[in-house]
């Protein structure tokens, strides 16, 4: 049985994951949401104006009323900058699984922030919400995301061949997952 809690603030060593605020708009535009390369990595459009970002934020913020809605602004503690986003989506209440997605501005890559954020969401997903399975995917060629997934100890499940048509060619989608028992056993081994 899932225990939906909504998007709660999560504190990690270097990050705060919290619900989005309207005041995040400038950081979003500056650091990631207007960057076509970042947005294309997880098949999202770019947002280039404050009005477009405000409209998206309205969608996010109004959805926080639902306890089964999970979308976090990723805030770097040191600078208090919104450096990206992380979400639990494709929530399957009947079969107790979900999928996660994440995106960080390129200035914040290769600092371990993505894996730190994903690990905290795994902990939240399994220990608080009680998901049985968390899945994640990346596009073929997204080596950085693949590295995050491996660092977080997901298990490769398979490839959906030619899933996306981008820039005139087909691109595969690679899927990974983690089961709650695997996560708990890993936590016990690390103690």
Automatic annotation (TrEMBL):
Residue ranges constituting the N-acetyltransferase domain according to the UniProt record: 15-181
Species assigned in the record: Bacteroides reticulotermitis
Cross-referenced InterPro entries: Acyl_CoA_acyltransferase (IPR016181), GNAT_dom (IPR000182), N-acetyltransferase (IPR051531)
The protein's enzyme class: transferase
Superkingdom field: Bacteria
Record's protein name: Ribosomal-protein-alanine N-acetyltransferase
Keywords (A to Z) from UniProt: Acyltransferase, Transferase
GO function terms (MF aspect): protein-N-terminal-alanine acetyltransferase activity
Its EC number(s): 2.3.1.267
One Pfam family, short name: Acetyltransf_3
């Amino acid at each position: 049985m899932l225990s939906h809690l909504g998007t709660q603030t999560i504190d990690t060593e270097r990050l705060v994951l919290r619900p989005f605020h309207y005041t995040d708009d400038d950081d979003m535009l500056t650091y990631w949401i207007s960057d076509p390369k970042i947005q294309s990595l997880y098949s999202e459009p770019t947002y280039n104006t404050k009005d477009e970002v405000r409209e998206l934020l309205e969608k996010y913020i109004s959805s926080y009323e639902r306890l089964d809605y999970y979308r976090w602004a990723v805030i770097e503690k040191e600078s208090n900058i919104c450096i990206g986003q992380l979400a639990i989506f494709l929530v399957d209440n009947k079969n107790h699984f979900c999928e996660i997605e994440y995106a960080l501005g390129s200035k914040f890559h290769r600092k371990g922030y993505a894996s730190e954020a994903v690990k905290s969401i795994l902990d939240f997903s399994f220990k608080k919400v009680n998901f049985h399975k968390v899945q994640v995917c990346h596009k073929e060629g997204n080596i950085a995301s693949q590295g995050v997934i491996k660092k977080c100890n997901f298990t490769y499940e398979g490839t959906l061949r030619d899933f996306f048509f981008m820039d005139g060619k087909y691109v595969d989608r690679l899927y990974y997952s983690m089961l709650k028992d695997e996560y708990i056993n890993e936590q016990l081994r690390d103690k």
